Model the fold of this input.
Amino acid sequence: MAPMAEPSELAPQSSLAVALDRVGDRWSLLLVEALLDGSRRFNELGEELPGIAPNILSERLRRLEREGIVRATPYSKRPPRMEYSLTAEGRDLASALRLLADWGARHIGREGGHEPLRHATCGTPLEARWYCPTCTTVVEDREAPDTRNV
Done:
């Protein structure tokens, strides 16, 4: 059996492939989620993500830092210790993570799942839409010709 190609080898033009190359593994996304509430130290991240081996945590943090998603700030020189926080680009991932979490909640188990996120005022299930902040309008797919369907 031939080895599987990396996402970027399959679709080098795909914006989804680019995103997956940067943050597409389980631990990276969970690290971003853990940092959404604020900066954390290495041990705090290890406690927040049970099951992650220290070497994997260290490698993922270095990779996310190289990608400009996480910032490492020293808080101790001897021994060298870092505190990790999201950059503005890393915080931009919050919306995508919310969508993935909502999708996951809806599809837990084979028989149903959890209720979708609902509007607190009226109880209607929420839907994701493209929005233009300049025009202050919701944009339909046909109005965004560069939109790619996955």
Observations:
- The chain has seven helices and five strands.
- The first strand starts at residue 40 and ends at 41.
- The two ends are 26 Å apart (CA to CA).
- The chain has a mean pLDDT of 83.
